[in-house]
Amino acid sequence: SKARCSVLHLPHHAAKAPMFMPVGTQATVKGIMPRQLLEDADAQVVLANTYHLALRPGGDVVDALGGLHTFMNWPRGTLTDSGGFQMVSLLQFSEVTEEGVRFQSPVDGTQMLLTPERSIQIQNQIGADIIMALDDVVSSTTTGPRVREAMHRTLRWIDRCVSAHAKPHCQNLFGIVQGGLDPDMRKECTHELVKRNLPGYAIGGLSGGEEKDKFWRMVSICTDELPRNKPRYCMGVGYPLDLVVCVALGVDMFDCVYPARTARFGTALVPSGLLKLRSSGMATDSRAIDETCSCYVCAHYSRAYIHALAPREATVAAQLITLHNICYLTNLMRRAREAIQRDEFVDFVRSFMLDLHPTRQYPAWASQALASVGITLDSS
């Protein structure tokens, strides 16, 4: 396959990849303490969001308080999103021009103009180890001339980001590959970004509702074209199956709000898929969420306990499930990394897929993606 393991030597941590990075939008994962991300989840890198931190408390405040690591008491790697994703998630509140993105705050209605220069300035103030270039983001299901416009604008904006970057000695600026679901545009954008010789590259504009068959093909095109000696980050990907397939395709880094968001609905990630802890069958189940998991939650609490909490103490239940879900994904990536090191990655993938699909009725897109890099699944 194209799977690889590596170490990102960041200013605050030597981060081991492949890795899943928990999303702490406002310098915190909802309901989880940084100590739990460190000691229980062994997270290598944690994300924060530039747009939301700029709104509250402000980049200048984070800077004055010692930067992101001191502010959130986190000793390992950090990454800040540029704020570009809010062009999609807050579409009704934003307007994109060549100058930048004008947002109307959903909190108090105030206006914010986020230009490439301003995004980098805020990220320099926040002080993350990895900072993201502001890109022109469109939904992955968008078609037509708007996709090409966004791709070319992303390339123009990367040069403005590079020029504005005041701390290249201690903050790594990653560019983001755009181009929608068009293979030629993806290749063009990748080639142009590689010319800038950036510290790392992200694959953006996916995981937004597009067909999985198109998703994996765009990822594979990008990893084929990106340099082997630079980290590759697939943005917004958090489903376990997607992670394993994308590791096989040569991706190193992932992030997503999925493990925390699904936890708030009482759903836990387990090797067989999803476990609905609010269902009536959990009421007297004394087993751990996942009997193969060594996380704090699985070591100390039963399914029945969390089920009992769900209707009345939903916050506590969500905290416990969130911690387990994040541990599940960080451990999944640790196991993938160790399998690559032992030259047993193919066996790891086959075992993972069989746990998820014991009848061997594998999703066609996943089978095709894995087969494209030489991993065949026994469907008999």
Catalogue the unreliable spans. none
Amount of beta strand: 15-25%
> What is the helix content?
40-55%
Distance between the termini: 22 Å
The residue-averaged pLDDT reads: 95
Rg over C-alpha atoms, rounded to the nearest angstrom:
20 Å
Q: Please count the helical segments.
A: 16
Question: What this model shows, in words?
Answer:
The protein is α/β, with parallel strands linked by helices and 380 residues long. It contains 16 helices and 15 strands. The strands form 4 sheets. The chain has an 8-stranded parallel β-sheet with strand order 3-13-12-11-10-9-5-4. The two termini are 22 Å apart. The model has no long low-confidence stretch (mean pLDDT 95).
Summarize this, please?
By secondary structure, this protein is α/β, with parallel strands linked by helices. Helix content is 42%, strand content 16%.
Question: Any descriptors?
Answer:
380 residues; alpha/beta; three-stranded antiparallel β-sheet; 16 helices; 16% strand; globular
Sequence-ordered SSE layout with sheet pairings:
Layout: E1 6-9, E2 14-17, E3 19-22, H1 34-39, E4 45-49, H2 50-55, H3 59-64, H4 68-72, E5 77-81, H5 86-89, E6 94-96, E7 101-104, E8 111-114, H6 116-126, E9 130-132, H7 145-164, E10 172-177, H8 183-195, E11 200-203, H9 212-225, E12 232-234, H10 240-248, E13 253-256, H11 258-263, E14 267-270, E15 273-276, H12 296-300, H13 303-309, H14 314-341, H15 345-356, H16 364-371
Parallel strand pairs: 3-13, 4-5, 5-9, 9-10, 10-11, 11-12, 12-13
Antiparallel strand pairs: 1-2, 6-7, 7-8, 14-15
